[in-house]
Design goal:
Length: about 180
């Protein structure tokens, strides 16, 4: 999934989840956190020479489960609703990233069962050979055309961004 679509899906998920009563008090912070952590797993791309090779431990659920469980436990121990909110926000954003990367995998999947298994899971067939390019070239051809050849994924990527643009325009006019 492309970076704008990750942010857009984070915004929608953040808005939906933040309706929960326990998150009401920190609603705006929560949405920002979900957007931020729907992007953070791709930080491993900075150190990777290729698109297909960029999935490190940050693209495995166990990494985020350990971190957020730790934050949740400390939050409970300190009786801090803020820390619990942060834990839920980090968990929601990072898991959303993994799920959307799994759905939109074109060259590398998600190792859901890591460290017990290194099987790469992907919804559609993947073509690792097409991902032997630097991350920056994802938005250029030939990768961009290759990615968009899967019309379901192309529709999803475009649709989610259009949806968020419509929501933002609506918010702008309604709240002003
Ligand atoms: Zn990713």
């Amino acid at each position: 999934m492309f970076i704008f679509s990750h942010a857009a899906s984070g915004y929608i998920a953040g808005k939906v989840i933040s309706r929960h009563k326990i998150l009401e008090k920190h609603r705006q912070y929560f949405i920002v956190l979900v957007i931020l952590f729907s992007l953070v797993p791709d930080v491993d791309g900075i150190n990777s020479p290729t698109v297909a090779g960029h999935h490190s431990i940050m693209h495995t659920p166990i990494f985020w489960i350990v971190i957020t469980l730790f934050l949740w436990i400390i939050g409970g121990y300190w009786n801090s609703s803020k820390l619990k909110m942060i834990s839920v926000g980090v968990f929601s954003g990072s898991m959303l990233h993994l799920v959307t990367d799994w759905i939109t995998a074109r060259t590398v999947g998600i190792q859901w069962l890591y460290p017990f298994s290194t099987i790469n899971f992907h919804l559609f067939p993947i073509f690792p050979g097409q991902g032997q390019i630097p991350i920056i070239e994802m938005v250029q051809d030939p990768y961009f055309t290759f990615y968009m050849e899967n019309t379901k994924l192309a529709a999803l990527e475009i649709g989610i961004n259009v949806l968020v643009i419509i929501i933002l325009i609506r918010n702008f006019f309604i709240k002003s």
